[in-house]
Amino acid sequence: DVKVTQSSRYLVKRTGEKVFLECVQDMDHENMFWYRQDPGLGLRLIYFSYDVKMKEKGDIPEGYSVSREKKERFSLILESASTNQTSMYLCASSSRRTGAREKLFFGSGTQLSVL
Amino acid sequence: QKEVEQDPGPLSVPEGAIVSLNCTYSNSAFQYFMWYRQYSRKGPELLMYTYSSGNKEDGRFTAQVDKSSKYISLFIRDSQPSDSATYLCAMSAGEYGNKLVFGAGTILRVKS
């Protein structure tokens, strides 16, 4: 069964802390994504990666960075957490094959609260 | 104006009703259209996937795409309480590197 696993279900952090969100997929997918989901705003793309060590900015990259050292793992880093980064963070992956790129598999999400 | 518009609801229907969920979009380059279902406290899961215009049916679910009107729909027949979830439309132009654009999601509640 296809699986995208996010390391934490709930996280509470303080303003200014450096925060790491980890995501692992077991489907040998080339593409990996980080989204945040906020009520009324839907899913917004933060960063994505099409290959190991590659990364591209999404729609809202400010205040975030990413790391992809291995194909199966994609990490999201909040360099200095702020209260406006309180949100649900969703990791997703997809195959590079034509017709499959848009079929995203999502993890269960990490609800991050920054106090 | 958002690139993809979706009524957030909530939409409340009795069990057994036919449900119609809709999205409109402005980018005529979109050619891949998807519906994702998201249960409470879970990540979205792909429900329907359509390329270009036309209809696609899968059990109780039918996805329709009308590119001339820039309008997509998801129909659920014989709705069940287990269909209660948020339904997100998503679309893409499909070019390499092009990203999915999501609607904000419609909350559906099916009452038994």
Describe it for me?
The complex is a heterodimer of chains A (115) and B (112). In chain A, strands 2, 4, 5, 6, 9, 10 and 11 form a seven-stranded mixed beta sheet that branches. In chain A, strands 1-3-8-7 form a four-stranded antiparallel beta sheet, with no helix packed on it. Chain A has no helices and eleven strands. Chain A has strands at residues 4-6, 10-13, 19-25, 31-38, 42-49, 56-57, 64-70, 73-78, 87-94, 105-106, 110-114. With 115 residues, chain A is mainly beta. Chain B has no helices and eleven strands. In chain B, a hairpin with a 2-residue loop joins strand 6 and strand 7. The A-B interface holds A 4, 40-43, 45, 48, 50, 56, 58, 90, 92, 99, 101-109 and B 6, 8, 32, 34, 36, 41-46, 49, 51, 88, 90, 92, 94, 96-97, 99-100, 102-105.
Shape of chain A: globular
Strand fraction band of chain B? over 45%
Through-space gap between termini of chain B: 37 Å
Note the run of SSEs of chain A as H and E: EEEEEEEEEEE
The amount of helix of chain B comes to: under 10%
Task: List unreliable stretches of 5+ residues of chain B.
Answer: none
* Largest interface: chains, residues each: A-B, 22 and 25 residues
The amount of helix of chain A comes to under 10%
Structural class of chain A: mainly beta
How many alpha or pi helices of chain B?
0
Low-confidence stretches of chain A: none
Helix/strand-derived class of chain B? mainly beta
Care to count the β-strands of chain A? Answer: 11
Rg calc of chain B:
14 Å
